[in-house]
Structures are given as structure tokens and as C-alpha cells.
Amino acid sequence: MSALAARLAARLWRDESTREAFLAALSRGDGGLPVDIGAETGGRDGLPEWTPEWVSRRTGAAGEQSYGLDFSSVWEMQALSVVPRPVRRVLDVCAAPGGKSVLASRHLAPGFHLANEVVPKRLGILRHNLSRCGIAAHTQRWDPARLAVEAPEAFDGVLVDAPCSGQSLLARGVENQGCFHPATVKGNAMRQRGILSSSAACVAPGGWLVYSTCTFSPDENGKNMRWFGRRFEDFELIEVPDLKLWESEDPRLPGYTLYPQQGLGSGGFVCVWRKRGERSELPELSTALTEWPVAGRE
Ligand SMILES: C[S@@+](CC[C@H](N)C(=O)[O-])C[C@H]1O[C@@H](n2cnc3c(N)ncnc32)[C@H](O)[C@@H]1O
């Protein structure tokens, strides 16, 4: 592993054996834990007891109607266990290729689900994945800033699975050059703040925002969450009891982090916020947000 990875490990842990285990897991690249959403295949051995019953270990290729992903995504979306039900409307701001949207739909069964993806060439795969998994949703391709203008306080819940430096991909054997470089991390952290600001505007009073990444740098995770808490005083942190084991020990850097040496997949970060205020009627949605439906399963 690179000197930059070692520098990150030194920032994350005092304990040398934990640093070494982290760097070794990244180097080996065999840390993925493949699971299927919606297929009963390889059982649930070794998965946490809170794992939803519609998740099972994958032994071969993912099925046509199931969604194959790394367990880290299931771990991140367990954060949805704490959000108030029923969920009238949910917005997935950075949705392609669709894994988190499939998980959110399974967890929440929202009345209206908008899966947004700003990169046009990624919309096809998003729509295909939602459709084959039978997820009833709508798609759009707006920049988060436009969502903030066209749909202020219009959603009970907003998911921000942010574009990031993707350091955890290494633990799955995916090459990702430069992912520890300070310029990469800083560029991502700044972009994430922009996306978070716009996304916060879409949350209705009493609603929630879930922020997740697949990286480990505190600048993109806990430090961004500290920034968010200061910048948006109308949001408060929400604890996720199921993820207690993975909670940050530093209250200045809130959130939960799964590391690849912990054996539950390549790793990731998640944090949940609640917007203060009472739930009330949601504003009417712009018709442009309902133009591109994906049919669910009957
Ligand atoms: C981590 S991926 C999302 C993965 C997806 N949530 C899933 O579970 O399958 C981040 C997504 O954000 C999109 N993205 C890139 N730049 C963005 C921006 N400035 N604003 C919003 N989304 C962006 C990327 O195209 C990518 O699809």
C-alpha cells in the first residue's frame, strides 16, 4: 500500500496492529462480501442479526430480478431503520446505478420515490435496475442545486450517497489510483458539501437526511458531518442503535464507519440527520419530477 494510505491509517488509529490490518485488507483486495437483495440464495451465515430477511449471501452470479451488491451497502442503509414511518416521499439524490434506491424502497416502501442521477449516461442503468427489481419510482437527471430550487422541503427523506474518493473499492480488488491523494480527497469533500447543502433544502420539517460514502478519509466523512451540523443548525444527529459497534469514538467527527478488516465487506460511512420541526402536509411536486416513471411489480 502507498505511503498516503499509511498516512491515512496513522490518522485513523494509534494502534499499530489495527493500522496494519486495515492496510493489509486494502492490499489483498478480497474484502468484498457479496449479497443479493430479493433472492434467497446463499443463506445468512456471518451477517449481523439485524440483517433484513430479504438479504442473503450470494454464491454465484446475481439473479435477473435480484440486486447483487457488497454487504457494506446493506450496512449503510441499516441507518434507515431509525427513520419515522410512513414515508410519504423519498429522494435519492445520487442514485445510479441504483443499489441504495433498491434498499431504500425495500426498507421504507415510500409513497413516492424519486431516484435522481445527474450524469445522463448513468440514467439507463439506473432505470434498468429499478425496473428489473420491480421498484416503482420516478427518475430525473437534475443537478442537486436545481432540486433545491424546484422541490424545497418536498421530501420526508433524502438520501445522499455521495460521489467520493472510493477508497473502499481497493478492498474489493478494484483499482482506484490516486484515491488517497490530498487533492482527490479535498475535491470530493468540497463537492460533497455542495451536494449536501442542496439536499438539505429538499428535506421537509421533521424529515431526515442520510449521508453515505464508500471511503474512509475523515475529510469526506466525519469532518464533513461536523461542517454540516454547524452550517445547518436546523438539523440534529440521529443515533442508529444497530450500528453502535461502528460509531465514531470522536464526537467531533460524527457518524459510523465500517472498515474492510472487520469482515463485513469493503467498508463505508453513514450518518443520519433529522430536520427539526413537525411533519405537516408536503408541498405539491413539480410535474417535471413525475415525467419519467419506472413501473413497479404488480
Ligand atoms: C456513490 S455513487 C452512487 C451509487 C448509488 N447510490 C448506488 O447505490 O448504486 C455517486 C453518484 O453521484 C453521481 N454524481 C457525480 N457528481 C455529482 C454531483 N455533482 N451531484 C450529484 N451527483 C453526482 C455519480 O454520477 C454517481 O452516480
TrEMBL record:
Active site: 214 (nucleophile)
Claim: Transmembrane is one of the keywords in the record: no
GO molecular function term, any single one: RNA methyltransferase activity
Residues annotated as binding S-adenosyl-L-methionine: 94-100, 117, 143, 161
InterPro entries: MeTrfase_RsmB-F_NOP2_cat, MeTrfase_RsmB-F_NOP2_dom, RCMT, SAM-dependent_MTases_sf
BP-aspect Gene Ontology terms: RNA methylation
SUPFAM superfamilies registered for this protein in UniProt: S-adenosyl-L-methionine-dependent methyltransferases
Key words of the record: Methyltransferase, RNA-binding, S-adenosyl-L-methionine, Transferase
Domain SAM-dependent MTase RsmB/NOP-type: 1-276
Pfam family, one: Methyltr_RsmB-F
Family: Belongs to the class I-like SAM-binding methyltransferase superfamily. RsmB/NOP family.
Name of the protein this chain belongs to: 16S rRNA C967 or C1407 C5-methylase (RsmB/RsmF family)
